[in-house]
Amino acid sequence: MNDALVVICLLLVAASATAAVAVRDPERQALVLAVLGLSLAVLFTVFQAPDVALSQLAVGSVLTPLLVLLSVRKVRRGAGPKTRRGTGPDRGGRDRTRPDAGPQPPGGRGGRDGATG
Amino acid sequence: MSRRLRMLLLALGGAGFAALFAAACLELPHFGAARHPYGERAVHAALARHTANVVSAVNFDQRAFDTLGEESILFAAVLGTVVLLRQTRGERQVRPEPVAVARPVRRYSLVMVPVALLTGLYVVAHGQLSPGGGFQGGVVVATALHLLYIGVDYQALERIRPVGGYEVGDAAGEAAYLVLGAAGLLGGSAFLANTLLPYGTFNTIPSGGTVPLLNAAIGMEVACAVVVLLARFLDQAVEIVDGSGE
Amino acid sequence: MSVLPYLAAGWMFLAGCYGLATSRHLVHAVGCLAVCQSSTYVLLLAVGYRTGGTAPVFSDVRPGSRPLVDPVVQALTLTDVVVGATVTALLLALVVQVAKRHGTVDPDELSELRG
């Protein structure tokens, strides 16, 4: 019974790790990394390591994906500062800029909401 | 390096690693084997010092010096991030405008903030008894604060999160760990040796000698470190914009 | 069964390395590095596992009543998880800096810039 559980969790972890590498868009990768963190936490619980599972749950499925999302947002904005004004600084991680969306139409997301303090 | 050369190198290295690793796996003790000499000794040492959670005993007693190293890596990584992500010349800070949040979301997250904070503190405080400790609880406490960002807005988060204070807290956690180690030295034994305090009653909060104190120091450092890290990244993603774009 | 967890760890490591080498986006590369790192957790905990063992925590288990899994590797992994996250954060901060300085995060374009 326990052996079957271990095998299932291992396959789940290996599959999500492969998916995390295969997904090329970093935004989607952040979500797959969260899934990987979650499945690792389950695997560690099955391995009778609750301390590590807790730590993995907090770090792997929350902190790392969040940091990745925030850097993607910054990098996307920083890459084309003159053309990307439409994706202004409104609400942090809420703004899901599409990958390779190109210049956004002015007013698409509140236009110049970030231009004035 | 051309793409083809790189892939060739990767294939060679990968094949070499796979062959050696597979050979090593066959020689490793089988998965689930019953012989764990270090583990058994660690359990004995933890029980001798009345620490119910053996993992915490290993981290903060038997291998406390190693944890000091890990903690210093954490500290240095946060320091590096703070330096790298500071506001540079030619960048401006823009106040993000408040945005209306759906009422149920706001209510739920405001209820959850104290619950999550309390959970994190509980996990830190019971590190020497049950699964958990400073590393896990610290992350929970730090991320719990950010529920305010989801529930209210960025300015509310900034009000309860003076980054300077958390930077001081980060340094204080690191310093407290060092001071506790030096106290062991002054107490007549070795650096970070757990001989200073009475070991207490097994399975109560003040058990395990210096383990709960070191655990709390780590909890403080990790919580402050994660808050500072997220603050820097959030500032970059939300507030700081390239001034030349205007 | 007796070597499957080790092989899974090796697979994860190789997959992460492949992603690192072929990545076209530095943030994606950092994510692949995180995958490589996770493989070490799986390997360490697999070495410490014991069939029928329970977690090395005595808050509700009488000492000596049941076999335990190895607490030493768990302690190693535990610190590694948290410290690994902060190192990931440092790398991401470097990526943000690269994006600011060079306006691109494609490793191939970056090496063309230099050469």
Automatic annotation (TrEMBL), chain A:
Residues 78-117 are annotated as: Disordered. GO terms for cellular component: plasma membrane. Residues 87-99 have a biased composition (Basic and acidic residues). It holds the Pfam family MbhD. Its main location: membrane. It is a multi-pass membrane protein. This is MrpA C-terminal/MbhD domain-containing protein. Gene3D superfamilies: NADH-ubiquinone/plastoquinone oxidoreductase chain 6, subunit NuoJ (1.20.120.1200). Residues 107-117 have a biased composition (Gly residues). It is found in: Cell membrane. The chain crosses the membrane at residues 29-47, 54-72. Residues 11-77 form the MrpA C-terminal/MbhD domain. It comes from the Bacteria. Residues 1-19 form the signal peptide. Keywords: Cell membrane, Membrane, Signal, Transmembrane, Transmembrane helix.
UniProtKB/TrEMBL annotation, chain B:
GO terms for cellular component: plasma membrane. The keyword Membrane applies. It is a multi-pass membrane protein. The keyword Iron-sulfur does not apply. Keywords: Cell membrane, Membrane, Transmembrane, Transmembrane helix. Residues 3-92 form the MrpA C-terminal/MbhE domain. Pfam families: MbhE, MnhB. It is found in: Cell membrane. InterPro entries: CPA3_antiporter_subunitB, MnhB, MrpA_C/MbhE. The chain crosses the membrane at residues 72-88, 108-129, 135-154, 175-193, 213-234. It comes from the Bacteria. Residues 106-227 form the Na+/H+ antiporter MnhB subunit-related protein domain. PANTHER family: NA(+)/H(+) ANTIPORTER SUBUNIT B, NA(+)_H(+) ANTIPORTER SUBUNIT B. Belongs to the CPA3 antiporters (TC 2.A.63) subunit B family. This is Sodium:proton antiporter.
UniProtKB/TrEMBL annotation, chain C:
Keywords: Cell membrane, Membrane, Transmembrane, Transmembrane helix. GO terms for cellular component: plasma membrane. The keyword Ribonucleoprotein does not apply. The keyword Acetylation does not apply. It holds the Pfam family Oxidored_q2. It is found in: Cell membrane. Its main location: membrane. It is a multi-pass membrane protein. The chain crosses the membrane at residues 6-23, 30-52, 72-96. Belongs to the CPA3 antiporters (TC 2.A.63) subunit C family. PANTHER family: ANTIPORTER SUBUNIT MNHC2-RELATED (PTHR34583). This is Dehydrogenase. The lineage of its organism: Bacteria, Bacillati, Actinomycetota, Actinomycetes, Kitasatosporales.
